[in-house]
Amino acid sequence: MPKVKANNITMNYDQQGSGEPLVLIPYLAADHACYAFQVPEYAKHFTCFSIDLRGTGESDKPEGAYSTELLADDVAGFMAAVGIEKAHVSGLSLGGVIGMWLAAKHPDRVQSLSLHGAWTKTDPFTKTVVGGWQILANALQSVPKMVIQAILPWCLTPELYAARPDYIESLVNFVMSRPVQPLAAFMQQSNAVLAHDVEAQLGKITAPTQITVGRYDMLTSRYAEPMHRAIRNSELLVFEGCAHAPMYEKVEEFNQKTLQFLQRQARAATA
Fold this sequence. Notes:
Elements: E1 3-6, E2 9-17, E3 20-25, H1 39-42, E4 46-51, H2 68-82, E5 87-92, H3 94-105, E6 110-116, H4 124-140, H5 143-155, H6 158-163, H7 165-177, H8 183-194, E7 209-214, H9 221-230, E8 234-239, H10 246-249, H11 251-270
Helix pairs in contact: 2-3, 4-5, 4-8
């Protein structure tokens, strides 16, 4: 897989498809492959650039403090390094908050913005949840095992666990198959989540924006309406019967509805 130097680190990425560029930003503890269910569909219409963030996958894992703003600067540097002048930008959870920073700081780089399960400022509830993930990761001395035991249940509904145990097992196997994130890198990345605050920047976002959330997403659903009001050129879509990750819980519906938004923005740009 190709690698480039961006913002003083080496970043790993995957490129598939053809058409206007679409940059896919992973969530906490994940690498580029987390969009495995989306890229085959998206790549029929867009050139998909799925990246490994600082601290994950095969990208560099430097010491020092991470922030969501720094991670957005990494993405802007990546786009410059591979020659992407402007792109559609999409992210789930941490990927979405990075996308907000990117769209606010580098508006000329973002043609459209897709925010899935994102949030504007980490509140005491989220700090408690993420702090628990840090404690368990340290106790297990394993980021993948922590993801399976602690993060995955927040992403999927109890009904999915009950109805499709084989599918849950396939997701578990997928998590275990990916390059292992070092514990120190997870702590740096999750500390960026704990300190995240992009609220003061929302008025700077000018790109057409799709905000999506699962109806039963206890992590971020309370942020959806305020985000919709604060980002002036935005639309809000709620996925029924889903928790934090509709992209895994209702794959076909998620792909169809998010792709419809992306294609509308591509047509609008060429009209």
